[in-house]
Design a protein that fits this description.
Distance between the termini: 77 Å
Bound molecules: thiamine diphosphate, magnesium ion
Strand order of the largest sheet: 2-1-3-4-6-5
Structural class: alpha/beta
Shape: globular
Low-confidence stretches: none
Helix content: 40-55%
């Protein structure tokens, strides 16, 4: 490799190694100190560039791509506060186990704490929120250092995508000249023609990645499998609970486990198991209405489960979490990352193992014994819940009704990104299980309402599926900058904007009765979002009722371009409908 100066050599080497490791896209943001990396990425023939003006949005966009693909999309920014703007997405990626690769440009070490312009302390900037951090040495045309650089690229990808995926941060120091200008060979910034001196591994790398890594957890050992099988075999009232997981238990393995056990499946909308062909194929119920009936008094008459097998993170549904908390029984939590993400502290056994391999091993033999009445209970409760939702939606429209419609009308396949606050809760409660390939994503690691639009558009950029984003008004406002990616990154979306003029969720809290509620919690803003149409090359439409919404939504998911469909609600009215619906379900179950 010949390069006009060491920075170019260094950056081209790093980028070519990342490409050899499978990287095919990057999110770049403008700045000077990152020039060597920006040019190396932009000029690489196999790398697609997503250019973002705002680093905060860039990082969430990369997060969205990684959520959809399981692979990191590197991020490049300049020095200073640019790097700090990655932080919210780093926190979310850390807490939800999503790969990110942060390449922050920095000054040479002697300029730190010297008052040099745009220079801040970037050492371990993201603290413990990254799986691996490396303060890169200054570029040098020296074989051992360049082999280190190639190894570092391979390691960064491996650390980010391993058993416990998450963010990796490489702080990359460059000294001028940053541009690909030629420097005399004998200058410290120059690259002597014979720098590699026959070390082809350093000079051109290898045929494929510099270091091929294999990492993975398999099934639990035989003894553990036997022990779990015994517990499942003995159970009359078992449950399979699938919590949020971007790359969790597959439908095929769930199908085998469900067939072997006969246990009902409680599938979080973010588990990837609430939707898909298995929903109709399984002999056991795939339940999605539990957020309504598990909280009801009617269910108090149910027996507790006597064993639970759990996959993924803690469920979105609070009634389900409490139901599991109050169930005095053995609860097996399968988590390949061994993350102990268990905020109710109810698991009795943690299996650090691959979800599919575990389910397949457990399903190796039939573990019959489940009581027919146990299954019937869930079938009946589901029926009651979904009938009540359909009835309510035909009479009145509320925020949850939109989620029910979005779920029912989404094309097959589709990628749905659901914002935090009420939208994800309504998706959980009103998004009915369906025989359709719907990939439902959300940012539930830290549950921020920032970066929602960017994450959704990032996910959309990584798939040919139609993309649907359902967002609240505060979340839409928070990441308005993210809308710029529609044009700059060529992503189309159907954006459903549930505008209840503030944070509708706060009505659910006792603070609702405090005099500060309106101005400091609900925070009505009165913003008219229609001008986002002109700013961000999208079509903005406000619809008045359910019929209009269903019509416009159907048109939008079938057409090109981006449509924002705004539906306005009174948050208090929507809560009243949720409460009424819950009472109806409870009454129907109690009367049964
Ligand atoms: C970055 C961030 N700031 C503040 C919060 C606290 N918070 C949780 S929900 C919410 C209101 C969200 O409003 P909106 O997006 O309109 O949804 P709605 O509550 O109306 O359903 C706020 C401010 C948060 N989760 N993340
Ligand atoms: Mg709102």
């Amino acid at each position: 490799m010949t390069a006009p100066n060491v920075n170019t050599l260094w950056a081209e080497t790093l980028v070519s190694e990342l490409a050899a490791g499978g990287v095919d896209a990057v999110c770049l943001s403008p700045g000077s100190r990152s020039t060597p990396l920006t040019i190396a990425f932009a000029e690489h023939p196999d790398i697609e560039v997503f250019s973002h003006l705002d680093e905060r949005s860039a990082a969430f966009f990369a997060l969205g791509r990684a959520r959809r693909t399981g692979e990191p999309t590197p991020l490049v920014c300049t020095s200073g506060t640019a790097a700090a703007n990655y932080h919210p997405a780093v926190i979310e990626a850390n807490q939800s186990g999503v790969p990110l690769l942060l390449l922050t440009a920095d000054r040479p070490p002697e300029l730190i704490d010297s008052g040099a312009n745009q220079t801040v302390d970037q050492e371990k900037l993201y603290g413990d929120a990254v799986r691996w951090y490396r303060d890169m040495p200054e570029p040098e045309a020296e074989p051992r250092k360049v082999r280190m650089l190639r190894t570092t690229a391979a390691r960064a990808l491996a650390e980010s995508t391993g058993n416990d995926p998450g963010p990796v941060h490489l702080n990359c120091r460059f000294r001028k000249p940053l541009e690909p200008t030629s420097v005399p060979e004998d200058d410290p910034a120059g690259v002597p023609a014979d720098w590699a001196d026959g070390d082809s591994a350093a000079e051109i790398g290898r045929d494929g990645p510099f270091v091929t890594t294999s990492e993975g957890v398999g099934a639990p050992d035989e003894q553990t499998v036997r022990r779990v099988q015994d517990a499942l075999e003995a159970a009359e009232r078992g449950l399979i609970v699938a919590g949020p997981a971007d790359q969790g238990l597959s439908a095929d393995s769930l199908e085998r486990l469900a067939a072997a056990t006969g246990f009902p499946v409680l599938a979080d909308p973010l588990s990837d198991l609430r939707f898909g062909p298995h929903v109709d194929r399984l002999d056991v119920p795939v339940c999605g209405g539990y957020d309504s009936y598990l909280g009801s008094d009617g269910v108090d008459q149910w027996d507790d489960p006597d064993v639970v097998v759990r996959f993924g993170a803690s469920p979105t549904s609070k009634p389900l979490r409490h139901y599991l908390r109050d169930a005095d029984c053995q609860q097996f939590l399968v988590d390949p990352a061994g993350g102990w993400s268990e905020a109710e502290f109810t698991a009795t056994d943690l299996l650090v193992a691959d979800p599919d391999a575990t389910a397949d091993a457990l399903a190796g033999e039939t573990l019959g014994g489940v009581a027919a009445s146990w299954q019937e209970q869930f079938i009946r409760a589901e029926q009651t819940h979904w009938d009540t939702v359909a009835e309510t939606a035909s009479e009145t429209y509320w925020e949850g009704g939109v989620l029910a419609d979005v779920t029912a009308l989404a094309p097959d396949p589709a990628t749905l990104f659901i914002s935090n606050s009420m939208p994800i809760r309504d998706m959980d409660r009103f998004g009915g299980p369906r025989d359709a390939d719907l990939t439902v994503l959300g940012n539930r690691g830290a549950s921020g309402i920032d970066g929602i639009t960017s994450t959704a558009l990032g996910a959309g950029s990584a798939t040919t599926d139609p993309l649907v984003l359902v967002t609240g008004d505060l979340a839409y406002y928070h990441d308005m900058n993210g809308l710029l990616a529609l044009g700059r990154c060529a992503v189309d979306a159907t954006v459903v904007l549930l505008n209840n003029d503030g944070g509708g969720i706060f009505h659910m809290l006792p603070i609702e009765d405090h005099p500060t509620f309106e101005n400091q919690f609900r925070t009505p803003h009165g913003l008219d979002f229609e001008p986002t149409e002109a700013l961000y090359s999208l079509e903005f439409e406000r619809v008045a009722d359910r019929r209009q919404f269903r019509e416009r939504f159907g048109d939008s998911v079938r057409s090109d371009g981006t449509q924002v469909i705004e539906v306005r609600f009174d948050a208090g009215d929507s809560h009243a409908v949720r409460d009424r619906l819950a009472e109806q379900v409870e009454k129907a179950l109690a009367d049964d």
